[in-house]
Design brief:
Elements (H helix, E strand, L loop, with lengths): L9 H62 L3 H20 L5 H9 L4 E9 L4 E8 L2 H12 L2 E4 L16 E10 L13 E9 L11 E8 L13 E6 L7
Antiparallel strand pairs: 1-2, 2-5, 3-6, 4-5, 6-7
């Protein structure tokens, strides 16, 4: 007589096997996550240690260089020279273009006038001019030329400005004119009068940052001073520089 074996707990067994599989997966996942966190902690620890080593090496290098500088006998002189070298570009931008003086004098001084002394004070933007002339009329022409001289920038910024809108080159002119006594036969000078002029100039005239500046000299018709009648001094135009036409 044969026996028949029946599995009365197939459902329970399947659930048990499934639970065991889930448990193993959870354990493996936990181990992997823990391994990742442990790896991150190790990396952070290594980074911290590396940074401390780098900082220590940098501090050692700094201390070494500081000691080297402290042992340098002429350190103060070296630093002073270096600071002066660093300030040279800015100082150059502030340097007045003194070479323009000769060009301005050649254009301002009329015939019959001779300069004896010329002083230029850049800190006060002031000029002092001493000289003589054949007649007082020559001096009047000179002072009128200074009073009504203007300037413009040839970079295009003043192209649309009329002559009246252009800035004056000089201001605050004070003149001291003295007639010379020609009765003294011992004097060999032909100068009939002497003068001393003090005036202020526009700082733009000697600004190194304005290389295209042009001094405009009035075309004077009268030889007498026309301070009260500026319309009688000019022929409504300025004398151009050599090589330039109106």
């Amino acid at each position: 007589m044969s026996m028949v074996q029946l599995n009365l707990l197939p459902r329970i067994k399947k659930e048990f096997i499934k639970a065991q599989r889930t448990k193993r997966l959870f354990i493996v996942g936990s181990i992997l996550v823990s391994g990742v966190f442990v790896g991150l902690v190790v990396l952070l620890l290594m980074y911290t240690i590396t940074q401390r080593v780098l900082i220590s090496n940098l501090q050692t290098s700094i201390d070494k260089n500081v000691k080297t500088l402290q042992d340098e006998k002429d350190l103060d002189k070296i630093l002073t020279v270096q600071n002066q070298l660093n300030s040279l570009p800015e100082l150059y931008k502030q340097k007045p273009t003194t070479e323009r003086v000769f060009s301005f004098i050649n254009r301002l001084v009329p015939s019959g006038v001779e300069l004896h002394e010329f002083q230029l004070n850049f800190s006060e933007s002031k000029m002092t001019i001493k000289g003589g002339a054949i007649t007082i009329k020559n001096i009047n022409v000179f002072t009128d030329t200074i009073k009504y001289a203007k300037y413009r920038l040839k970079d295009g910024s003043d192209d649309n400005k009329s002559e009246n809108e252009l800035p004056a080159a000089f201001s605050n002119l004070v003149s001291n004119i003295t007639a010379n006594d020609r009765s003294n036969s011992a004097s060999e000078s032909d100068e009939g009068a002497s003068f001393e002029l003090t005036l202020n100039y526009d700082v733009a005239l000697f600004d190194i940052n304005k290389p295209n500046l042009e001094l405009l000299i009035p075309a004077i018709e009268s030889t007498t001073s026309a301070t009260e009648r500026p319309g009688g001094v000019f022929n409504d135009q300025f004398v151009p520089e050599e090589g330039e036409s109106q």
